[in-house]
Design goal:
heterodimer; A: five-stranded mixed beta sheet; 28% helix; globular; B: mainly beta; Immunoglobulin-like; five-stranded mixed beta sheet; 25 strands
Chain lengths: 165, 289
């Protein structure tokens, strides 16, 4: 019951200082597995840092600056995103990722505390430009599987992978 | 009038249907492919267009000949994810989506095992979590069975099976009763990852000392100090001898050397001598009258 009651809405998260002020956010911990309890502070920090990672991703793709990923991504996720930014730069494309909503379900907090896995049913718009000419703006709904790992002062995204819903 | 309306709506329906088909045919994209596999995209019309495959994990741009298939060789799109496929041509753009799924066969495991060092005989003292990846480092979502094996230097093995959920599985295991380096292995099919867990003796168990007179002194020495599983407690572990005698108390900390702690203390008549190591108390000896 407690876990179900953890369904919180955007206003609470926004009050806790989440930056992604324009997107709606819901959080559900009822599907959380693992022997380690997810404390409220840990949960809030993971959500805050994950939502910030979307902003970093948008900035990296919008400005063709893979360095924008450094603070929020690590490992495979960072390498893949940075590679994609390089690819779009070479192709003369840039893209905008504007997130509209995140429905986050916590799935797993590993027993040693070194990873958190969550599902995010995200709604966002992708706008593609070819040499500053707008090509298309597409609304997208996709389910992302995300693995966060703790770094020095924040949670970083190690895996961020969309799956067919 | 009725016939006119029927014809009008019929024509409108036909036009909409044909229009929808024309839209559908403008760009044909497989709804889903396996990461790294070859596929093709079919466009309609004539002339040139530009095809974009855009996702946060990969970006591709191709000039295509409309009306002919565009082939993507194996390995072209290898990062699992959700992609937008856009065909831009003079008459406008057409958009589709493409889902790229992970290869089903595992290629690597990310294995988080903790701690690297712990005492023997600790219930649920060892934890392991594993994430399963394919050859392109895509997380494999499909459920799979992962085995966790903890083997001691003597060859005894604890084994547990766990099913992955969204690519992750975990376990908890007891540390064994034998000190030494244990191999902690996570395995999915032919793919495995190994961590080494050092199991050290636990707290001393049944700490026992004896005393023999040596002139004005007492020679105090312990029996070989073992943990409750019979493993020798490491040399250097501090053993504390405390002597309470009429008018005073003296305490000596002695490190274990070759499993034994030994010290000489004054032989006060009526003294009570006790021994301890950490929170473990040993026996007491009363000396003299």
């Amino acid at each position: 019951m407690l876990r179900y009651s953890a369904l919180i809405c955007a206003s609470i998260i926004l009050a806790s200082g989440v930056v992604s002020a324009q997107s709606d956010v819901t959080v559900d911990t009822s599907q959380l597995k693992g022997p380690r309890p997810l404390e409220e502070e840990t949960k809030a920090a993971a959500i805050r840092d994950y939502l910030e990672s979307w902003q970093a991703m948008d900035e990296a793709f919008q400005r063709d600056q893979p360095g924008r990923l450094d603070e929020d991504f690590i490992g495979t996720a960072k390498e893949k995103l940075a590679e994609a930014v390089d690819e779009q730069t070479k192709a003369g494309i840039h893209t905008l990722y504007q997130d509209r909503a995140h429905h986050i379900q916590f799935l797993f907090y590993s027993p040693e505390g070194l990873s958190i896995e969550l599902i995010d049913d995200a709604d966002y718009d992708v706008q593609v430009f070819d040499h500053d000419k707008a090509i298309s703006k597409v609304p997208v709904s996709a389910r992302y599987i995300v693995v966060l790992t703790p770094a020095e002062v924040r949670w970083k995204v190690r895996v961020m992978q969309a799956s067919s819903q | 009038m009725k016939k006119t309306l029927t014809l009008l709506f019929g024509g409108l329906f036909l036009a909409l249907t044909l229009g929808a088909h024309a839209q559908d045919d403008a760009l044909t994209v497989p709804s889903s492919i396996v990461a790294g596999s070859a596929f093709s995209v079919q466009s309609a019309g004539s002339g040139e267009g530009t095809l974009y495959i855009v996702g946060p994990d990969q970006v591709l741009k191709r000039t295509v000949q409309l009306g002919t298939p565009t082939y993507f060789t194996a390995g072209s799109v290898y990062n699992a994810g959700h992609y937008i496929v856009i065909l831009a041509q003079a008459s406008g753009t057409t958009t589709r989506t493409l889902d790229v799924t992970p290869v089903s066969a595992p290629s690597s495991l990310s294995f988080l095992a903790k701690p690297s060092r712990l005492p023997v005989g600790l219930h649920d003292g060892i934890t392991g979590a594993v994430y399963v990846f394919d050859v392109y480092h895509n997380l494999i979502f499909a459920p799979a069975s992962v085995s966790f094996e903890l083997s001691t230097p003597s060859g005894a093995v604890q084994k547990q099976l766990a099913a992955t959920r969204a690519g992750a599985a975990w376990t908890e295991m007891d540390s064994t009763s034998q000190q030494g380096n244990s191999k902690f292995v996570a395995r999915d099919g032919d793919v495995s990852s190994t961590a080494v867990i050092r199991q050290v003796p636990g707290d001393p168990c049944d700490l026992k000392m004896s005393a023999t007179p040596a002139g004005q002194l007492l020679d105090l020495h312990t029996d070989p100090v073992r943990d409750c599983s019979g493993n020798a407690v490491p040399d250097g572990t501090i053993v504390t001898f405390t002597e309470n005698f009429p008018g005073g108390q003296s305490t000596v900390d002695v490190p274990l050397k070759r499993d034994i702690a030994e010290v000489k203390m004054p032989a006060h008549d009526g003294a009570t001598i006790s021994v301890a190591s950490g929170v473990v108390l040993g026996n007491q000896i009363r000396w003299g009258k």
